[in-house]
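Weekly modeling sync, notes
Attendees: S.R. (lead), two postdocs, one rotation student

Agenda item 3: backlog of single-chain predictions. S.R. asked that every request posted to the team notebook include the full sequence so nobody has to chase files. The rotation student volunteered to paste the first one in as an example of the format we agreed on. Action items at the bottom.

Example entry:
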Amino acid sequence: MDKFLIDGPCSIKGKVLISGSKNASLPILAATLLFDQPVIIKNLPRVKDINTMLNLLKSLGSKIILSKDKKTAKVINKKNMKTFASYSLVKTMRGSILVLGPLVAKYFKSKTSLPGGCLIGARPVNYHLAALKKLGMNYVIKDGYIIAKSKGRLKGRKIKFPKISVGATENSIIASCLAKGTTILKNCAIEPEIKDLTNFLNSAGANIIWSGRTCKIKGVNSLNHTEYSVMSDRIEAGTFCVAATLAKGNLEIKNLNPQIIKTELNLLKKAGAKIKTDNNKIFIKGPDKIKSIKNIKTKEFPGIPTDLQAQLMVLMCKAAGKSSITESIFENRFMHVAELRRLGAKINIKNNKAFIDGNTKFIGAELMSSDLRASVALVLAAIISNGKSHINRIYHLDRGYERIENKLKKIGVRIKRYK
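Predicted structure, as returned to the notebook:
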């Protein structure tokens, strides 16, 4: 099992090119199941979760032709696709549930395993199932599988989500594209990755219109061939922005629209970072002294993303004074805290709130990754620690970051992958 060795502290300087978005690629790839004609998806990140989704599509009967750099996939569906998404593929990744909607919408049946992924909370699929049921999907859950069918095409309905849910919004939008009539989804998640999904579907002839948190989908009979380039990864960009702020860095971050991480950049400015933005670039310099921020709270977009909470906690450990972070999205997303304490962090947890005493002097240690974003927080902490840190179980990191050690080496981090 691969590990990282990081020899800190490191100073960070240079340019970083941001990869395609994992969280946009997954629903877009799932949506290719709706197509009879070939689809070309560009700017895919080379991460484990994308490989898992491509393997899942292959298991359902899609032919996948990858470009040499593996960043472009041509997806060709057979006439008679399988509708069985097995546990062996779905267990490692939460996003696998996104094949349920398109399979039922296109083939009127599916047997999809309940998903796995990071251990960061229950993340129930009940919102997905309730919405798809309203569209005409009947289902039972048996032996860990959702066994679903519909009597012919799904039918457009008005649906209001009881709680904002990214996955349920995506699954419902994808399924509604081929439904009869008009579907109106209210209280939708409006993350940029969801807008990217709807831009992709519209490029193929879908009829989707947004108004605030309401999404109106007029069903079509079929979707046309399309070529689409996935947006850049705002969480990867945010992670490098935190790294620069943390390590007195001087970074140019390329290939990302700064508008989609406006909230995060404003927060980093409060912490003392100097930031300039251009069309597709962010120039960021870290301060000599990081300022503490009293109450950071994760929220649905356009708020602070839960996927940056762990990274921001490392930042607040180095800030002058006390700060706190409230995690309002997932109930089990403080698993990195125990490992940060091993480096010397002073963090207390009360329910869903972390209280952080700043001015931490991190000392290198042996560490264990617990989930995707916690892993990268440990990498950030190791970069500014005195001495060597060994980070175990970095396969979590490989699920969402494209060979992060190569990008870190280019900007001055002493990092090595080893078995």
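Discussion: group reviewed the output briefly. The chain has 14 helices and 24 strands.
Action items: rotation student to repeat for the remaining queue; S.R. to check formatting next week.
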